[in-house]
Specification:
Blueprint: E1 5-11, H1 39-49, E2 57-61, H2 65-74, E3 81-85, H3 91-104, E4 113-118, E5 122-123, H4 126-141, E6 145-150, E7 161-165, E8 177-184, H5 189-198, E9 201-211, H6 212-222, H7 224-235, E10 238-240, E11 243-245, H8 248-252, H9 259-264, E12 270-275, E13 279-280, H10 285-291, E14 300-302, E15 305-308, E16 314-316, E17 322-325, E18 330-334, E19 339-343, H11 350-359, E20 371-373, E21 376-384, E22 387-394, E23 402-404, E24 408-416, E25 419-423, E26 426-430, E27 435-438, E28 444-447, E29 454-462, E30 471-474
């Protein structure tokens, strides 16, 4: 029954409520919040345990494409179709794009069944999910649109709810598959408590199972603007390396709308499958703290942390020693360039901090000090007016674009490995401990032809040091 199931992983979120760990340019699905694998990797790796053999379709932000591809390859998921959203339009258009990709590759005329999974969820009990999936696929094969509703463990104001109902035919309250009476937006604390008391309410997980054709038909009926725009974006899509790039102008014409509002709240074919599998969307620091192992005082600690007289507090340290004393019920998160201190009950307000940073032009809302690139990463070391020092780490076999800067010079010192440098048409080797200089207006490139990482200290000098002072002439990663 699972041979027609195509997994769709939605990886377009920004994860602003997990700032400062999650940033727009490197959001939570690309981060290992616990363990060694990122949430995206955990989601992709989970598929085999569910009995699904088809490679996933991953829909992601264009800016994250190289990180997504490399993370998938790192766990052996090489055959994934990675579809690039040129602009965020919420989940309904993203799923439509995946449905069209699935239909274009269908085998033996079979209509693919889509298993739609956000990339940033935690699921402890994969066996329970597999059981629920069997029921959901059977419903989808019968033409229904299936939501997974999580059995709530407590009143929660951070999730939407699904009010279930008996289906025609006398289903009782214990039936796994039930009808949907209504969808409820995130409630206040009083209403959330009332939902738990009344029973029949499930958390809306954001996971769905639906036939690809059925989904597009539902869009045609209830959100025709989404279907028309995405069909055109898919028809005029282009291949960019091993990515499928949706046409930007066409996709931008789609209304920005969630699958809940576009389809689930309007269709007459919706059902919900109850799921009790240790699920969390890890949407806030409080949610992440709930997943952590706590000591006798109720504290959860990661990193080089010292506690004194602390209770019921989540502390995530960074590269330096972090000491916390005499407090309780806090969230404390330290990164290279930002420190967050918040009350457990104010975890949702972190989004307001991010909005303030964005409105005031602070770069910390979008990026970490370490900036990931398809060839590796760089991070600033020091800077002042007229100069900037960076550390570059270039992956084995990788190379930067052939480029030029108009307003700055660069001096490179190789501190680990060996660099192959192209400068003004000349190519030469720079060994560990050696250096070279790149004047303004000079075409240049760095390559790492070895099997080990290459580290370079780069000193920039000039009247303007912005990252947009780059003229690219050639780039193996397809960047403009």
């Amino acid at each position: 029954m699972l041979d027609t199931v195509i997994p769709v992983i939605l990886s377009g979120g920004a994860g602003t409520r997990l700032w400062p760990l999650s940033r727009a340019e490197h959001p939570k699905q690309l981060i290992a919040v616990s363990g060694e694998r990122s949430l995206l990797q955990e989601t992709a790796a989970r598929l085999s345990a569910l009995g699904i053999t088809a490679p996933p379709i991953v829909v992601c932000n264009d800016a994250h494409r190289f990180a997504v591809r490399e993370q998938l390859r790192a766990i052996g998921v090489d055959a994934a179709d990675v579809v690039l959203e040129p602009v965020g339009r919420n989940t309904a258009p993203a799923i439509a794009a995946a449905a069209l990709v699935a239909l274009s590759g269908r085998r033996e005329g079979k209509d693919p069944i889509l298993l739609i999974l956000p990339a940033d969820h935690v699921i402890d009990d994969v066996t329970a999910l597999a059981t629920a999936l069997q029921a959901a696929v059977a419903e989808a094969m019968a033409g229904r649109v299936v939501a997974f509703g999580v059995v709530p463990s407590h009143p929660e104001t951070g999730y939407g709810y699904i009010k279930s109902k008996s289906r025609p035919g006398g289903d009782d309250a214990g039936t796994t598959v039930r009808g949907i009476a209504r969808f409820v937006e995130k409630p206040n604390a009083r209403d959330a408590a009332a939902f738990i008391e009344a029973g029949g309410y499930l958390w809306n997980s954001g996971m769905f199972v639906v036939g690809a054709t059925r989904y597009l038909d539902e869009l045609g009926t209830h959100a025709s603007g989404v279907r028309a725009a995405v069909e055109e974006a898919h028809r005029t899509a282009t291949r960019d390396l091993d990515f499928l790039r949706l046409d930007a102008a066409s996709f931008a014409r789609s209304p920005a709308i969630s699958v809940d509002h576009a389809v689930m709240e309007r269709t007459t074919h919706a059902v919900v499958v109850a799921l009790d599998a240790g699920w969390s969307d890890v949407g806030t620091w409080s949610a992440l703290a709930d997943l952590a192992t706590r000591d006798a005082a109720g504290n959860a600690v990661t990193g080089d942390v010292v506690l004194a007289g602390v209770r019921n507090t989540y502390v995530r340290g960074g590269k330096r020693l972090l000491a916390v004393a005499g407090v309780s019920n806090l969230i404390v998160v330290d990164t290279d360039d930002a420190l967050l201190v918040a009350d457990h009950t104010s975890a949702e307000a972190v989004r307001n901090v991010v909005e303030h940073l964005r409105a005031t032009g602070r770069p910390e809302h979008a990026r970490h000090r370490r900036v990931h690139r398809p060839w590796g990463f760089y991070e600033p070391v020091h800077g002042a007016a007229g100069f900037q020092v960076k550390r570059l780490c270039i992956d084995p076999g990788a190379r930067l674009s052939l480029q030029m800067h108009r307003r700055r010079s660069e001096h490179w010192v190789v501190v680990r490995g060996a660099a192959t440098v192209t400068r003004a048409g000349e190519t030469f080797e720079v060994a560990e401990g050696e250096s070279t200089h790149i004047p303004p207006g000079t075409k240049h490139r760095i390559e790492n032809r070895s099997e080990k990482p290459l580290e370079i200290i780069e000193v920039q000098c000039g009247d303007y040091l912005g990252e947009d002072d780059i003229v690219r002439f050639e780039d193996v990663y397809g960047r403009k």
